[in-house]
Structure of Ammonium transporter:
Amino acid sequence: MRTLFSLPSNLLPDEASPEWMNKGDNGWQLTAATLVGLQSIPGLLILYGGSVKKKWAVNSAFMVLYAFACVIFCWAVWGYRLSFGDKLVPFWGKPNVALDGEYLIAQAFLGKFPNATMVYFQGVFAAITLILIAGALLGRMNFFAWMMFVPLWLTFSYTFTAFSIWSPTGFLAKMGIIDYSGGYVIHLSSGVAGFTAAYWVGPRLTQDRQRFPPNNILLMLFGAGLLWMGWTGFNGGDPYEVNVDASLAVINTHVCTAVSLLTWLLLDIVFFRKPSVIGAVQGMITGLVCITPAAGLVQGWAAIIMGLCSGSIPWFTMMVIHKRSEVLQKVDDTMAVLHTHAIAGSLGGLLSGIFAVPKLNHLFYGSNDKYIGLFYGLADGRASAGLRQVGVQLIGILFVVVLNVVSTSIICALVQVIVPLRMSEEDMEIGDEAAHGEEAYAIWGDEEERLDPKYALPKTKAAGLVEMA
């Protein structure tokens, strides 16, 4: 009987590189996946850890570390096949494990590399989505509630969106939606889910909402740099082969991001008279997010226009609309994921429907002629096809928003039945010591005086950790 990890009996040593596999494509795909993984660990881990108050540095970083580990495990065991397996319903795959010896070394559903590579590549995308959601919840969510939220949301929200948009048999994929590398699946999903979860979890303490300075801006910038450079693999890996489209996606990504950062920076200078480092990072993120659904499908001039839009429109929604809206201000979105991911992702999706080049669509999607940006549809006398593309993009936005509001709300309600979503007021006053019995910055020799005995690690355990170090 074949076991879970068995290999085909007829696999010979020289078949470790079968004829269908392209070594260059496989090597790049593994590299791209690792770059995406580095965006989370350590990229967002240290970006979050440096962006919050000192008392929340450990908790914020640990939310990232836990989410990454939990998602990778759940993804390999059941998440991947729900997202990319055989169709069960138009928006979900059949439950099955990916950790099967024969399955892992067989050719992936796309690309000239094995399923093992695809499971890894898609797994780090799933992980960063949960980590982006964490950005909206920093500074008050009960860690035990977060531990339950992550696998539930991955299973009952992310897999629905991934299958619908990225699986060849998903209903939105069949409609012809354009989402090159996750503007919908990752960024719109995480932005909406994060904002929704923030509503259910509740706000930080009043003093934390009013004043929440970064404890280490240089550390935050280091994390932001890893995020930016890691996006080379994020967008460059999605053609699933080493080709000109991958190169185009990479340069478009960096050009759009640079323009977006500079646009946000100039707006800060014009209206606030100071060049803000934090603002520049926000502009960087919105640029990365906006170009993602279109990265390998638009020309360079369109990437510049998208950068101008991503540096200005989310700036306006964050700095003007949000501050004037009582409804929006009731939700405590710590890292502003609604603006940097949901709005920027939606913007990128709509602009993809306008600027996507038919020739590049053909290169990426194959022979299907239904993918055409409105700009080129008008120019080529195919206005109806271009308008249809914009309509499909809008349907995709509506689907992702509704799905994530509903699924995230249900998941939060279920978790709330078991453990509180929000930490107690007393524990939020203290932060890391209350949540983990540890703190980010302790002067050697003074930690026993500084740590509250109520929350500190047992001396025997602490001593053991020192000895191991």
About this structure: The beta strands are 87-89, 92-93.
